[in-house]
Amino acid sequence: MTRYAAQTEVSSDKSRLEIERTLSRYGATSFMYAQTQDHAVIAFEMIGRRILFKLAMPNRKDKKFTLTPTGRFRSATSAAEAYEQAVRQRWRALALVIKAKLEAVECGISEFESEFLANIVLPDGGTAGDFLIPQIARAYETGEMPKMIPFIE
């Protein structure tokens, strides 16, 4: 399977700026970006909801960056270039996902909450996905639906 934008030359900064502009064009009322070595975060507010995307960054020490396809060690420059290519690819993919979700909502294919459900920030700061995914897994394992109000018998 081919990765979207695997050979992109669009910088991560340009992709982030594209995301910010896309969100603004579709009506986002605020935007936030932060990055650590391990993750980048994009957050925005739209139609009264806060949305959070966590973009995992690749591990610089991964063999796909430090070794060539034939198993030889890459130069520091070559390893850095391979790593940056992977980072650029992830940012392009995130820009595509956000744009596609917003357009699906805009043209009536789906509703905002359906498209962004896993990324909606809940009052405790976690996302709906963080809350729901373990419950869904448990429901499949046990065959039982979760309680309507967790932690209450």
Question: Would you summarize the structure shown here?
Answer:
With 153 residues, this protein is an alpha+beta fold. The chain has helices spanning 12-25, 63-66, 76-106, 112-116, 128-142, and strands at 30-35, 39-46, 49-56. The protein folds into 2 domains: 12-121, no CATH class; 122-153, no CATH class.
Strand content: 5-15%
Distance between the ends: 47 Å
Q: Report on the biggest sheet.
A: 3 strands, antiparallel
Report the radius of gyration as a whole number of Å: 19 Å
| pLDDT < 50 stretches | none
Number of alpha- plus pi-helical segments: 5
Helix content: 40-55%
- What is the topology, as strand order, of the major beta sheet? 1-2-3
Mean pLDDT: 94
Describe the structure.
- The chain has 153 residues and is α+β, with helices and mostly antiparallel strands.
- Helix content is 45%, strand content 14%.
- The longest helix has 31 residues.
Topology overview:
Blueprint: H1 12-25, E1 30-35, E2 39-46, E3 49-56, H2 63-66, H3 76-106, H4 112-116, H5 128-142
Antiparallel strand pairs: 1-2, 2-3
Q: Notable features of this structure?
A:
153 residues; alpha+beta; three-stranded antiparallel beta sheet; 3 strands
